[in-house]
Protein 1
Amino acid sequence: MRNPPLFPAFVSQHSVNFDKDAPDLGAQFPGIALPESLGRAVPKRKAEFLAGRFCVREVLRRLAPEHAEIPVGTGKNREPLWPDGFVGAITHTLDFASVAIARARDAHGIGLDAERVMTDDNAERLLDKIASPQEIAQMKRKTGWGTGVALTVTFSAKESVFKCLYPQVQRYFDFSDAWIEILDGERFSARLLSTLTPSLTAGRTFEGRFEHDAVSVCTGMVVTPST
Ligand SMILES: CC(C)(COP(=O)(O)OP(=O)(O)OC[C@H]1O[C@@H](n2cnc3c(N)ncnc32)[C@H](O)[C@@H]1OP(=O)(O)O)[C@@H](O)C(=O)NCCC(=O)NCCS
């Protein structure tokens, strides 16, 4: 299936559609094992995990075949434990999973996130948890989007920021720690509002890419050694 066009060429990506209600999940993703910790998880969680790890294996088969058959584990804050020398990100929605991986010499971190577009009503209810009213107002003014699309893009961009910077920050940080602006039809900026580490200081700004249609949003971001 087509990868959302979010990354430079040194990032390898693989995406799949899957059926979370399929009776035999394993048949969709042969050779991918569920960790013991997910043995009693609900079928949706099992399906999304398998879909994500299937994409990981497909990318590693191309990028680093020697690592492809070794399961990528999960760290203390649920982060994927990439093979030494690699960074990456995993995302999944109800029926879509995607993974992006790069060599650590090319990227310090990768963010990737996919979301279903929220309704305007849901977005109004969730707004305070994800963004400031001014952040969403400026985005709606600039793009002409409704609240649902604006908040979904903002939410997804912040999730990408979190996954991308987590390897450096190594702890949870919040939606209020970044401010998202749309730069043009493909690019967003993410400005840190808090200092997260001695080098990730308040005011630092990163650039990411997004794609959206009426039902889905996908965002991606890469921090390179020269960013
Ligand atoms: C971790 C989080 C970003 C995951 O996003 P999500 O929309 O719930 O789910 P997605 O399907 O897009 O991504 C799930 C994958 O993210 C990855 N992930 C989870 N925690 C992670 C972390 N700490 N660092 C990097 N990646 C992480 C995992 O690979 C996970 O899939 P898996 O459990 O099957 O391996 C989200 O649950 C969260 O905690 N957000 C709050 C923190 C935040 O976004 N702050 C905003 C800062 S500006």
Note: The first strand starts at residue 12 and ends at 17.
Protein 2
Amino acid sequence: MRFYDDPIEISAEVWAELLTDSEVTRKEDLEVLKLIYESRNHEMHAKEIALKLNLSHHVALNSQIPRFSKRVIARTGVPPPIREDGSIRWWHVPFWGYDKRNGTGSWIMRPELAEAYKRIFGQDDSEIVYPGEMTVQDSTDLFEGAVSKIVVNRYERDGKARTKCIEHYGYRCAVCGFDFERVYGPIGQNKIHVHHLIPLSEIRREYKIDPIRDLRPVCPNCHLVIHSKREPLTIDEVKEMIGSNSSQ
Ligand SMILES: [Zn+2]
Ligand SMILES: [Zn+2]
């Protein structure tokens, strides 16, 4: 099985332009790219991607990615990767990997694309530090009653829970109504925070997060205000503070 890593004349700068152009890179493409980017080596199997995105079958991806690639080629005008028989290896525009005709392999983001993705979306929100919360590593300390570190709580960093919360509530801040997606477009999607409603002091070892019951999307400003006291303010308390200025 041959591994395909043919070069393509698209630099990281150009990929960056393509990624922020919603006519080329659609929302569903960004979802796929995000998953791959966040995987080890920026590598992921199509079946796994389909599973995570709740696509009924990875065949759906095998038409979505070529459509994305076609828009990339149409916009840039660079020659696409071609098979010996003259057909175009569309998946090979954004990815490295094995040809589907020779069995299924995983997709690896081209380094220039990964670099571009990092430049645009790369800020890792999980590194943002907020008062009154704690890291994954510190969660054991929590159960032993030794809460000392001050960083974002693991429930707010849990990617799956976050995704479910946002799927349910959308990208609007539950406090002030600011809509990241509407205001900033695709880049904004990654910037909304989720706030965990249950005070850590009330959490027991057997606690299992319910993303819809326990999490709410909040903008970074409101999130900062919520955590401005040792005991987090409630969403209603912060809503009251901004009062009539709130958009909803
Ligand atoms: Zn807000
Ligand atoms: Zn929070």
Note: Residues 126-245 form one domain.
